[in-house]
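Appendix C reproduces, verbatim, an entry submitted by the partner laboratory led by Prof. M.T., so that reviewers can inspect both the input and the predicted structure.
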Amino acid sequence: MDEPTIGLDPHQIIMIRDLIVGLRGRMSVIISSHILPEIEATCDRVIIINQGRVVATGTPDELRREFLGRATYRPEVAGELEALRAAIDTVRPGLTLETIDGPDATGFSAYEVTSLEVDDLGEAILHGLATTASLRLRSCARTAASLEHVFLAATRRSWDATLDDKKAPKG
């Protein structure tokens, strides 16, 4: 199917997605599309092609690990920044902590905690923040990079390799 949802209204898009998902396990459906959220919603496996060459293949999660190689969490916390940093360091030293937004009217700020490894630290982060008496934890979610981020990283790597090939001396 080439761009199966292009030009459809939202009801028709849902019907096409349901049709594709309904075929799962009974037959393979190949979809060609630049609408990556649509691919992510319907496909189990992804192949990214750049300049006529396959530059990536795998499940969306496998591609995230290969090309982005990090895990990101977004906790909403009220309390002192230094207490938050200390709590995060007890989970795993080397995690980065960045303020995203806040504090809001109730004193909560949004942060981003990033691990350069893809192992799941969600439970450890929740435990570390929830058991720190000087912090109040409102929420914590793992954020997954979109397939668009993966596509950009995969094709950037492909372009870099192509440029390196063109720079290499021939002979």
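The two ends are 43 Å apart (CA to CA). Additional entries are available on request from the coordinating office.
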